Structures are given as C-alpha cells and as structure tokens.
C-alpha cells in the first residue's frame, strides 16, 4: 500500500470516527488541546531566519471499547514554522496532521490514568504531504464525572517531502476531554421512598443498584422480626474520596434513625470498589468509605457496639468492570442488619 492510499484511508477513518463519536450516546469522548510544537534540529541548518517552534493545538475524539483500550482520531494544527535545510529547501507555512491510533490506558488511582498511543498520521506542510508513524504518552485526571484533563507528549516521526527530509515534530499539550454516556449518580426521589414495612424484597446482586434497597419485614401482632440489606452507591460520597456527599448523608438518615431507635439491632457495614487502581489503594478506599458511614451513624446516636465495619476492596464485584456503568455499580457500601426482634407500634 503506497503513501497516498494510506493517507486517504487515514483521513476517511479519522473523520468517520469523529463524526460517530459526536453523534453517539455510547462511551465515546471528544476533546480539544493546546500546547507547543517543536521541530527537530535539522529544520534550521542555515543562519538564515528560521523558526522551529510554535504554538499548536487541535481536536480529538475516540471510542472506548473497554476500560483499557480505545480508538482515537485527531485533527491538529501543529504550528506555523519557517524552515531552511539548504539554499533551495526552505518552507514557511502551517503544519497540519490527521492522526488515527489505538489508545491504551492503565488506571493508577480513582482519578489518575496513564495512557499511550501508537499509530499513523497524515501530515501536510507548505503544500506537500507525507504519512508518518506517531506515538504519545500522557496522563489523564478526572475533574468531574464527565470531564477529564489531559497532559500529553506526542511525536511525529520522519516527515519527508520536497522541502524537508526526516523531520521530527514534538508536541507538548494540555487538553480537556468530554466523556459521552457517563452515568450520573442515582438518587431516590420522594415518590420512590417507602416505609420499611411496605418495601419490596431485596433484589439479586446483579440487578441495577439504587441509593437504598429497603428491607423485608415479617410482622406479628405484638413482636416483629426484621432483616435489612441496604446498598449505598457512589453518589453517597464525593468523587474519588471517602467524604460523604450531601445526598449521601440524606440517604443514610433512615438507616441512622432505625438503628438509633432499636439499640438491639446490629449492622455490618462493608465497603467495595471497582478494579480501577491498585489493590492496596482500593482496599484502603473501601475501608475508609465504610468507616465514614459508621462515623455518620454514631454521630446521629447509634452506638459503636452496634456496628461491624470492614472493606473488601475490589474482591466482590456485582457487575462487570469492563464498562463505566458496571464500575459505577461496584463502587458501593453494603449495610446488612441481621434479623432482630422489636415491639410493634
């Protein structure tokens, strides 16, 4: 396959991917970046005026096949360069690039990911073009549920045309990425809230999680027996931390009032995470979130002797960790109240 054919295929696939991402509700993303581009030293071989550095930027988009692999396309205006490789080989124009590359991501914490890309780029400078290999290394940080910041270094290797030969381009950029299809934390509105005695039986673990899953109750005339299983999802906490959110504190109040009113009741509080990040980090985060729930209950009048607190990290997922929706379900705190007797009112 010659370079012209490769260029046409790269251009068509890149534009198609960007259009598909813009129209999709799937786990795709779009972003923009700004930074600084620098040409290799061979761009300025004479004492004549030469400018081998420039501000640059572009847009990019991709589709996440899973947590670790995506396909990304980019349209870049790398900068305005003035080159001289000899008396008859000068150039003064904007350098442009269209890229297509798989992107490989590894999460190092709940907020930080490192990534690498390696693929091809169709480049144009001063009326001439070439197809070159390109690769990048970068770091992404989750600013909000649907917005990431990106720090990236990208290299375009051996651009060659009638003006330049074996010219390398280095780009250092900062970008913002918008994620499509990012699930919002689920909340329970007033129409969904029910008294404990009217609540449905607990759902199987694989079913979608709501903020609280109410209890099953077996009532007698004077004495009742109650067993509860409740799940509190990631919306219970502020993003990436063990600090309870306002929504989380509201969702915990019925549980707090129940335990405070029935001191004979006991509660097992277990924190869970998804598989993003190291096992040690996830274990510590699960324990911290379970403890935050316990501390809130104690501050509301529940005795610490009523509570058993532990974290299971990423060991017991209730959904796949290959999708954002599944990972969101796995980030949870489960509270189990074994059966206890109480006086009916």
From TrEMBL:
Annotated family: Belongs to the outer membrane OOP (TC 1.B.6) superfamily. OmpA family.
PANTHER family per record: LIPOPROTEIN YIAD-RELATED (PTHR30329:SF21), STATOR ELEMENT OF FLAGELLAR MOTOR COMPLEX (PTHR30329)
Keywords of the record: Cell outer membrane, Ion transport, Membrane, Porin, Signal, Transmembrane, Transmembrane beta strand, Transport
Domain OmpA-like: 224-341
Protein name, per record: OmpA family protein
Keyword Transport: yes
Taxonomic superkingdom: Bacteria
InterPro entries to which the protein is assigned, alphabetical: Bact_OuterMem_StrucFunc, OMP/PagP_B-barrel, OMP_bac, OmpA-like, OMPA-like_CS, OmpA-like_sf, OmpA-like_TM_dom
Spans annotated as Disordered: 183-205
Regions that span the bilayer: none
Gene3D superfamilies named among the record's database cross-references: 2.40.160.20, OmpA-like domain (3.30.1330.60)
Biased composition (Low complexity): 196-205
Subcellular location: Cell outer membrane
Annotated signal sequence range: 1-24
Source organism per UniProt: Vibrio ulleungensis
Membrane topology: Multi-pass membrane protein
